[in-house]
Amino acid sequence: MPQNDLDTLDERIVHALAEDARRTYADIGAEVGLSAPAVKRRVDRLRERGAITGFTVRVDPAALGWQTEGFIEMYCRSRTAPEDIRRALARYPEVASASTVTGDADALVQVFAADMRHFETVLERIAGEPFVDRTKSVLVLSPLLRRYTAGPPL
Amino acid sequence: MPQNDLDTLDERIVHALAEDARRTYADIGAEVGLSAPAVKRRVDRLRERGAITGFTVRVDPAALGWQTEGFIEMYCRSRTAPEDIRRALARYPEVASASTVTGDADALVQVFAADMRHFETVLERIAGEPFVDRTKSVLVLSPLLRRYTAGPPL
DNA sequence: TCTGAAACTTAGCTGTC
DNA sequence: GACAGCTAAGTTTCAGA
């Protein structure tokens, strides 16, 4: 088994891919000081380990016609299992992310919708889920920053 | 091959890339009913239009040692420009996303940190920004859903 | 065990229709 | 938008440190 868990090299590779997943292995290798095959093998290992879960495209939601973004705080009935919340929200294509959180609310849900009417529809449907007591929502006025990776400095 | 609406084709291409940005153009083309060069040209156009802003890697923050996630609501001094907030937050690698929002708070900031101590440090530094009156933060207990694209059903 | 070089395979790209 | 050919990258193999 490899002796290094995530070493500096792996972090730099992940960082390079996070900025541009289409960079070639040779190119990344030149930056971190490895050959192309060596970089590929490390990427393969990172995928096996679950550190990298896939490759995706960075999308500007507004440019695709999803103009309205908002966050919905969910207040649930006591004894609602997180898994029940997850299963229910997974059915909404408008839900981009959701987490259970500390504080008054039980879960915080990020939603993209085509317009305000669409957002309202989604909000009402979520509020109507059987385990939901009430909701509180805020609308995004303007997105300031949208990174797809974050963490301690590499 | 049925005649497809152009918008529908673009959306299906984006959807395919969002799920797996490493799929080949030929593979995506087979799904949507186009040749590989045709798909590539549509992707190029989507990039030029700004609908696709880049390609990135899907990372499991926890697997990379970023165990602590939270949201910080920022309450700012009146007459703080959104651009000032953006510029200040851009300096924090721990900030994954930030938006100005409706409601009591001025901005909602998503933060990833290595651990609780690190999160606290970031929180204190953000709270110490000259334009910040006060902050309110919630910690993520468990992420339920983390999609990298969302929107109206395709 | 991890690496790098080279051979091999596949996909990306461009010109043409 | 499709086809075809050229270019470039991904992938595998193998031998060395």
TrEMBL record, chains A, B:
Residues in HTH asnC-type domain copies:
6-67
Question: In this entry, which stretches build a coiled coil?
Answer: none
MF terms per GO, please?
sequence-specific DNA binding
What species is given as this protein's source? Streptomyces reniochalinae
SUPFAM superfamilies membership: Dimeric alpha+beta barrel, Winged helix' DNA-binding domain
GO biological process: one example: response to amino acid
Annotated keywords: DNA-binding, Transcription, Transcription regulation
- Protein name per UniProt: Lrp/AsnC family transcriptional regulator
Q: Where is the signal peptide?
A: none
